Amino acid sequence: MPDLETVLVAAPTFVVAYTVFAMVGFGTTLISAPIVAQVVPLPTLIPAQSLLDLAASAGNGLRLGSKVAKAEVLRLLPAMMLGLIAGAYLLIIVPLAALMVLLGAFVVLYALRGMLTQPRRRPLRPGWAWWYGFAGGILSAMFGAGAWLYAIYLTRRIDDPTAIRASQTSLIAISAVVRVVLFAVAGKYSDWQVVGLSLVLLPAMVLGVFIGNRIAHKLDRTRFLRALYLVLLGTGGALLVRGVISA
């Protein structure tokens, strides 16, 4: 079971992370990993968070199932599956310090992209599903953070916001199921550190989703995302520095 220091760092962070998830549809690991990785190794954190992601996305997936754009989801799925397998393998074999550097760099670049670029609405060709699906699968397995790539693809293929949200939720749920299965096959859930972390942080996940659903329609999304990018820039930068020092 996690010690008191780990719980004091991870629990409030997970509340915030799943509040963000309930509001914008993704972002749990982007928020939690740069902070919680300071006290929990990524090979322990990512399988534990995959279990919680599965639980958090399952409810919304069932509720919005009728709105899913099935054709777009089916385009993304084959490449996403390949990416998940490749990412799970990399998570197991890549050294811890290198993982911290990769995650820190990824979060910093994601934050900078969100702060410095404007969303593009020009439609994508269907063939781009292979790139977005594969890259998103790798990032999902390694860091639990590939859903933003699915969101980019879906927003440039679908006009209905509800269909975008429903399709993204279904992809996150499917991704979480595959990640959990892959980590189970790799023996990650025979490690009681992983299982214990998931159980201890389950209430934080539930509370975060509850809060996020309550305030989702009351907060200006643009300002919220700007603040989120600033937080990500700071936490990702700190993790990047720590990973470089540890290497």
Automatic annotation (TrEMBL):
Q: Does the keyword Cell membrane apply?
A: yes
Q: Which domain of life is it from?
A: Bacteria
One Pfam family per UniProt? TauE
Alphabetized UniProt keyword annotations: Cell membrane, Membrane, Transmembrane, Transmembrane helix, Transport
- Is Mitochondrion one of the keywords UniProt gives this record? no
Q: Which residues cross the membrane?
A: 6-26, 76-109, 129-154, 166-186, 192-212, 224-245
Where it mainly occurs, coarsely classed, is membrane
Tell me the InterPro entries matching this sequence.
TM_pro_TauE-like, TSUP
Membrane topology field: Multi-pass membrane protein
Localization terms from the record: Cell membrane
Mind telling me which GO cellular component terms the entry cites? Answer: plasma membrane
This protein is called what?
Answer: Probable membrane transporter protein
The organism's taxonomic lineage, starting at the top: Bacteria, Pseudomonadati, Pseudomonadota, Betaproteobacteria, Burkholderiales
